[in-house]
Specification:
five-stranded mixed sheet, 23% helix, Nucleotidyltransferase, domain 5, alpha/beta, 158 residues, 4 helices
């Protein structure tokens, strides 16, 4: 049996499944883990979001966050309410609307086609539909540590 879990650090399950940097692929024999391989996520997003959790890339104190412009690391300026002009690229959200119309996770489905179970923390509507259409079995799980999630799943199916 093979179980896949999306991860960014090889210890915790990724909060954003489709944007995870890699998949931990666990081989299970006789109810025990016999091997773990890590495969880079082949699904790429060509935007400026952090692959780890979908956050905008920022340098602390300088960035174009959304929300309170007086909080450290968010908004324009130096994080102390002072507005300092500097050059940066804005992320335009109409690109996300276009992405939704064309959004596909074919790479994920192809990469996980030999998996018996994909354990995930959350799943968006597009990834959910692509997993269903691709006959990739998945289950929503609780917890954060991958080792605990795998052990809980093995207890459940034994």
């Amino acid at each position: 049996m093979k179980i896949a879990i999306a991860t960014n650090d090889r210890e915790h399950i990724a909060k954003r499944t489709g944007r995870a940097s890699e998949y931990a692929i666990y081989t299970i024999e006789n109810g025990k883990v016999t091997d773990v391989q890590y495969e880079e996520n082949q699904h790429h997003h060509d935007d400026d979001h952090d692959r780890s959790e979908g956050n905008h890339r920022q340098v602390e104190g300088f960035g174009h966050g959304h929300g309170d412009h007086n909080r450290q690391g968010e908004g324009h300026g130096n994080g102390r309410g002072n507005h300092q002009h500097h050059t940066h690229t804005h992320h335009h959200h109409h690109e996300e609307e276009k992405e939704e119309e064309e959004h596909s996770h074919d790479e994920v489905v192809e990469q996980l086609k030999d998996i018996d179970m994909f354990l995930i923390r959350a799943v968006g509507k597009y990834l959910r539909q692509d997993l269903i259409n691709g006959n990739i079995p998945f289950e929503l799980v609780k917890g954060e540590k991958i080792d605990d999630i795998v052990q809980d799943y093995l207890k459940k199916i034994s």
